[in-house]
Amino acid sequence: MPGLDDSRQFVPLKIAVLTVSDTRTPEDDKSGNTLVERITAAGHTLAARGIVVDDVAAIRSRVETWIADPEIDVVITTGGTGFTGRDVTPEAVEPLFEKRMDAFSSLFLLVSFQKIGTSAIQTRATAGVARATYIFCLPGSPGACKDAWDNILVHQLDYRYRPCNFVEIMPRLDEHLRRPKAKGATV
């Protein structure tokens, strides 16, 4: 059965949060705040936070900066994953992926379907790995951020979670880059 193995030590990660929106400000960024609250409550560190407009170049530039930073383990974006003309987060971020995480999109769809029914079809949530950094692109609603964190990310970003998790393989993500990540996590 899946669950936490208390014999393993928790490994805090450094997580950056990027809100993609033409209208949000630090004062009213509910989705970003939802993620920050959950990240810190889980014991992780908020490494960086930002807001950029729905623009491919702006989104890609910020994500590229963060994945180049050896101090950032995970990037989570919120917003820009829908179907309107301004929703361009997948177009901005997916070209950066060295490996796509198709199962994240599928699992997020299953979680969303349980909450919002067939409206879940309107998401283009995506995830992947780039430069030994995990990237998760979530919809821009607090509910979607809660669902993704509470049902998927809180477990997979916890070294104690069994039978497996993303943290335990972090030291091997960068074998081709020779950049250490998640010190303290061993396979």
Structure description:
The model has no long low-confidence stretch (mean pLDDT 93). The strands form 2 sheets. Strands 3-2-4-7-6-5 form a 6-stranded mixed sheet, sandwiched between helices. A two-stranded antiparallel ribbon has the order 1-8. The protein is 34% helix and 20% strand. It starts with a strand and ends in a 14-residue tail after the last helix. By secondary structure, it is of the alpha/beta class. α1 runs parallel beside α5 (142-156).
Task: Compute the CA-based radius of gyration.
Answer: 16 Å
H-E string: EEHEHEHEHEEHEH
What's the count of strands?
8
Beta-strand residue fraction: 15-25%
Task: Estimate the helix proportion, in percent.
Answer: 25-40%
Sheet with the most strands: spatial strand order: 3-2-4-7-6-5
Major sheet details: 6 strands, mixed
Averaged pLDDT, please?
A: 93
Count of alpha and pi helical runs: 6
Distance between the termini: 19 Å
Q: Give the CA-based shape.
A: globular
Q: Could you say which structural class the secondary elements and strand pairing correspond to?
A: alpha/beta
Q: Which regions are unreliable across 5 or more consecutive residues at pLDDT < 50?
A: none
Layout: helices, strands, pairs:
Blueprint: E1 3-4, E2 14-20, H1 30-41, E3 45-52, H2 56-68, E4 74-78, H3 89-93, E5 99-100, H4 102-116, E6 126-130, E7 133-138, H5 142-156, E8 161-162, H6 170-173
Parallel strand pairs: 2-3, 2-4, 4-7
Antiparallel strand pairs: 1-8, 5-6, 6-7
Helix pairs in contact: 1-5, 4-5
